[in-house]
Amino acid sequence: MKMFLIKSAWDNITFNKKRNTFSILLIAIASASILLFQGYVEYSKQGMALGFIQKSGNIQIRVKGPHDTFQKDANLLTAKDILQLREFCAQLPEITDIDAVLEFNGIIGTEKNSSIFWGAAYDKPHAVGITAGTPVFADDRAVVLGELLFEELEMDLDNTENFVNIMTTTITGDIATASFDVNGYLATGNFQTDSGLVITSRKAVLDLFELEDSANYLRLFLKNDKDLEKVEKGIQEFFIKHNLNFETANWKQLNPEWEKITGLNTVQFSVVSVILCVLIFVSLTQSLSASFMERIGEFGTMEAIGLKKSSVILLLLVESCMLSLFGIALGVLLSQFGNVITTALKIELVPPGYTKAYALNFYIDLTAIVITQSFIFITCLIAVVYPIYTVKKYSSMNLINYNGA
After folding, report:
1. Average confidence (pLDDT) over 338-365
2. CA distance 313 to 167
């Protein structure tokens, strides 16, 4: 009986090729639209999170208390602290990289212009990236500037003698100055950051300002952010067990704006999602229901020649399922094709408050496919409720002569 229903449904679909082709295309377009929208929402969320993690790390470890590098009461990680923390964190399989960071600020200038800056010195400054120029490595006495700061100081990459003078205050309260070569600039896309960012090597800062080996904090990068809570809890337990005066902060705590922006985006996307789902639901149910109602006499004929009413109803359900599955499969392919085309065309968007454009992309995973396509599938099943009600209500002769009245 099952094979008979499936074969009959397939025969009905192929017999009514034109009508069912349009139905499948409608389902595919609806499927692709809602999947791409969900992919864009997830890409926006994940992309923003990755940007914050790249800057701050998944977890930071620092000494409890004030952390300003050039204050007398600053609590910095010492060489002993850094070594102890590195040895412990290196044993954790979830951690992929450890980087010590020393922050500093002051005035930066050339013969023509000067400006205030806020800098970060890394063990691996080249890992931060660069937009134009040459990355700074651990042993380099050079800096990478924020794009807007680079422009304000009238730097030129074609000039082989690019250098800046930096003045800051040491822990002892003395004023320290040093000259650095300028290797290039980095565009983060954030106006405030690009206006005063200075990136250099931690070794260079320690040497030039005659500081002992120290850092404001250690950045820990994880293989998977899903392990964040587990790893952070394990580190805190290690501190308690060995009575260590350290504290941790995860990237969400360090970047509270992420929660605010994500919350706002979630509300906006939820409203759009509801509108999109309502439009898809109405269009699919109306179109598919009308398509089946046009063939109601055909179902009456099936009943008249001996097919049970229950079998006719099952046939309607099987045919609806097959149409929805064909449409969903085509929709998933269309969404993937759309993602590839978007990537190839390099379409870019500039988020509010940013100066840098980001490539438009869609993050489509199995979870998104299951959630969105389940909605499409259920909608297609709901579309045959009225035709099923009609088949169940009327006799075969009434169905054959049914005119919609």
Report:
1. 75
2. 82
Alpha-carbon distance 91 to 89, whole Å? 5
CA 76 to chain centre: 33
What pLDDT score was predicted for residue 173? 66
- What DSSP string runs through 199-230? EEEHHHHHHHTTPPSEESEEEEEES-GGGHHH
Distance separating alpha carbons of residues 79 and 83, to the nearest angstrom: 6
pTM of the model: 0.73
More confident residue, 401 or 99: 99
386: exposed, middle or buried (Cβ count in 10 Å: 0-12, 13-18, 19+) = middle
Burial zone of 300 (CB within 10 Å; 0-12 exposed, 13-18 middle, 19+ buried): buried
pLDDT tens by residue, 280-315: 999 999 888 888 888 888 888 888 888 888 888 888
- Given a contact cutoff of 8 angstroms between Cβ atoms, the answer to whether 142 and 200 are in contact is yes
Give residue 172's pLDDT.
60
How many Cβ atoms from other residues are within 10 Å of residue 16's Cβ?
16
> CA nearest 137: which of 152, 146, 151, 127?
127
Q: Are 80 and 214 in contact (CB under 8 A)?
A: no
Residue 14, C-beta contacts closer than 8 angstroms, at least 6 positions apart: none
Q: Given this model, what pLDDT does residue 86 score?
A: 92
Alpha-carbon distance of 198 to 149, in angstroms, equals 9
- Which of 69, 77, 268, 318 is CA-nearest to residue 173? 69
Q: How far apart are CA 375 and CA 276, in angstroms?
A: 12
Cα→Cα distances 100→59, 138, 200, 221, 232, Å: 12, 12, 12, 12, 17
Select the more confidently predicted residue: 330 or 393.
330
